[in-house]
Amino acid sequence: YPVFTHKFSQIENGGVIGENEFKYLTHYPPLLPILISLSYRVMGVNEVATRFIPLLATAGTIIVFYFIGRTIFNRGIGLMAAALALATPMLRYFGKNPVHEPLALFFGSLAFLGAVLVIKKKRKGWFLVWIGLIAALLTNWQGVYLLPALSIALFKKLEKRKLAYLWIVGMLVLTGHFAHTKYLTGSFLGGGLTEAFLQRSTLGGVAEVNPFGPIQFINRVRLWASTNFTLSFILTTLIGVYYLTKERSKQLKLLFVSFFIFGIGYPLTFPNATYIHSYFIYPMTLFLSFISSYAIYTLSQKSKSPLILISVLVFLTVWFERAPYLTALE
Questions:
Q1: Where are the alpha helices (DSSP H) in the chain?
Q2: Residue 24: which H helix or E strand, with range?
Q3: Cβ distance 233 to 88 under 8 Å?
Q4: What is the dihedral of CA 188, 189, 190, 194, to 10 degrees?
Q5: Phi–psi pair at 46, nearest 5 degrees
Q6: DSSP secondary-structure letter at 80?
Q7: Is the pLDDT of residue 4 over 80?
Q8: What does the pLDDT look like over 146-180, one tens digit per residue?
């Protein structure tokens, strides 16, 4: 069906049905299914067309990671961040799945690239901030966490009036989603939106049947992280966190805090979904990639070891550590 026919929303029905029979899915903003439907129109309904949008988003994320690293630090850290992200099972497997997280991470990363350009007083930075923020909010609830994250990243560099504009635009986009839901279903929370929220949080749904506490949740996230990001990657991250505590640049610390908030906010908001689905920690890729690259760079400087040597060793370790697991997934 053309996007105008189903009113720019995802429908759950299968087969050929009439417009009055559409069952609208409002659990997520509509950008991903709209883009996939356009992919179907060009390439037909097949697996390649289904995976094309997330693959494109993942490729874009790798490129954006490089430019973020180059802008904040240098080309070396940009290349390391991009390569380490690509080496993880998280991106190599889930990065080509037709779920919202890869697209949301791409747009979120684009907004952060804009933010670091703004910090460096580059005019084109604001364009990327607006495009990334609005597109992320139209893709997934993960985009909501760009608002506090960008506010922290830009807090020392901008007038508070400009930060207020971010929140105003963000709230308008979110309000637009609920207004769209009202238009589709007759209710601002229609289409099972409330039920989906309760099911993905610990307030209801599956959590009522199989309750878990904070310790079990932390242990499950640890399992997902060591499995999909690899233990080597996580250990390198911990080294980076240690070095960051010694860092003198407050602006750099604020950037890493903003990366972390963007990554952790989504899985913490929906702990029940995170407990079940390992890819819900996908947004942490941004923080983990850059803090690991920062660790490698700092370790190289302190030990006077060749940067390329340490980088290649860590990359190969991350790439091959979970190779059997990745093969099993494929």
A1: 31-43, 47-72, 75-87, 89, 100-119, 125-137, 146-154, 160-185, 193-200, 206-209, 214-228, 231-245, 250-269, 271-276, 285-303, 307-321, 323-329
A2: strand 24-25
A3: yes
A4: 180
A5: -155, 175
A6: H
A7: no
A8: 999 999 999 887 777 888 999 999 999 999 999 98
Cα–Cα–Cα angle for 72, 66, 115, nearest 5°?
45
pLDDT tens-digit map of 67-121: 999 999 999 999 999 999 999 999 999 999 999 999 999 999 999 999 999 999 8
End-to-end CA distance of the chain: 31
Residue 291: strand, helix, or coil: helix
Dihedral of the CA atoms 56, 59, 63, 65 (nearest 10)? Answer: 110
Residue located via tokens 């209710």: 187
- Residue 104 confidence (pLDDT): 97
Helix-helix angle 250-269:285-303, to 10 degrees: 150
Helix (H, G, I), strand (E, B) or coil at 241: helix
Amino acid at 140: N
What would the pLDDT profile of 195-246 be if each residue is shown by its tens digit? 888 888 876 666 666 778 889 999 999 999 999 999 999 999 999 999 999 9
Average confidence score pLDDT of the chain: 90
What does pTM read for this prediction?
A: 0.93
Residue 224: name the closest of 276, 288, 262 by CA: 276
Q: Judge whether 294 and 242 are in contact, CB under 8 Å.
A: no
- Rounded to whole angstroms, the Cα distance separating 192 from 24 reads 9
CA distances from 282 to 57, 162, 169 (A): 13, 29, 25
Tokens of 297: 């760079």
Contacts of 143 (CB under 8 A, 6+ apart): 29, 104, 107, 108, 133, 135, 136, 137
